[in-house]
């Protein structure tokens, strides 16, 4: 283990633990910057959608029925519920409750997959029953499938990410003091939750 | 047997969103005084999650979204 001398003359341990402490803030800032860039990406599409929606002849265009608010509310609740379980997964990890942590992580992953299944059901219904498609239904279809699809992609990535974190934590990659991956996973999952609050509101409620 | 799926979806959404709101509000209260950048972000996220619970509840009880997208 390398030992360096800092200017005040004291010996300074430069081992992996110290490296973790020194780089944690940088990694956190980097991850937050990534989330901000994702916010910018979603905002660009959201404002484009709102602009196009308000420049048309009515919304949705004639011939397209209104979206299923009841099912979307149910599916939203599933995703928001996963945000709660993810938060308590992190809390249980911090408080050394490993079994509860695993239970909360598994619940989060299951709820995330359920949300994706619900979105798949909604897409199938829209395409087969209402004949709304990404390329064949004008601005409505393009904006709806692009934004919700982009969000769904983020949820799918999050499910994979959380599954990897769960496996890593079971195999002892994280400790009580070193769990940045878990913090980042929780931040990411909250982010996809919050984005859905906006998408749910603008597509189904206004 | 005939199920009113819309009613079931709305009921589950309304009840679930109340639970989500309470859990998010309690977590926000517990984390209120925690320092650090990530905890500040967590607080914002939890507050928005609580708002999401309210929105989903209002949609579940058919207060919001009644006139949305009327063709």
Describe this structure in words.
Chain A has 206 residues and is mainly alpha-helical. Chain A has one domain: Cytochrome c oxidase, subunit III, four-helix bundle (Four Helix Bundle (Hemerythrin (Met), subunit A), Up-down Bundle). Chain A is 75% helix and 3% strand. Chain A has 5 helices and 2 strands. Chain A has helices spanning 16-54, 69-94, 98-128, 138-170, 180-205, and strands spanning 3-5, 11-13. Chain A has a two-stranded antiparallel ribbon with strand order 1-2. In chain A, strand 1 and strand 2 (11-13) form a beta hairpin. In chain A, helix 2 runs antiparallel to helix 3 and helix 3 packs antiparallel against helix 4. Chain A is elongated. Chain B is an all-alpha fold and 71 residues long. Chain B is 70% helix and 0% strand. The model of chain B has no long low-confidence stretch (mean pLDDT 88). Chain B has one domain (10-60). The N and C termini of chain B lie far apart (32 Å). In chain B, helix 1 (5-30) packs antiparallel against helix 2. Chain B has 2 helices and no strands. Chain B has helices at residues 5-30, 37-60. The A-B interface holds A 25, 28-29, 32, 58-67, 69-74, 76-78, 80-81, 83-84, 87-88, 91, 183, 186-187, 190-191, 193-194, 196-197, 200-201, 204-206 and B 5-6, 9-10, 12-14, 16-17, 19-20, 23-24, 27, 37-38, 41-42, 45-46, 48-49, 51-53, 55-56, 59-60, 62, 64-65, 68-71.
Quick gist of this model?
Chain A is mainly alpha-helical and 206 residues long. Chain A has 5 helices and 2 strands, in the order ββααααα.
What is the overall shape of chain B? elongated
Query: Low-confidence stretches of chain A at least 5 residues in length (pLDDT < 50)?
Result: 1-11
Mean pLDDT of chain A: 88
Could you say what the CATH architecture of chain A is?
Up-down Bundle
> What is the CATH topology descriptor of chain A?
Four Helix Bundle (Hemerythrin (Met), subunit A)
- Range of helix content of chain B: over 70%
Distance between the termini of chain A: 60 Å
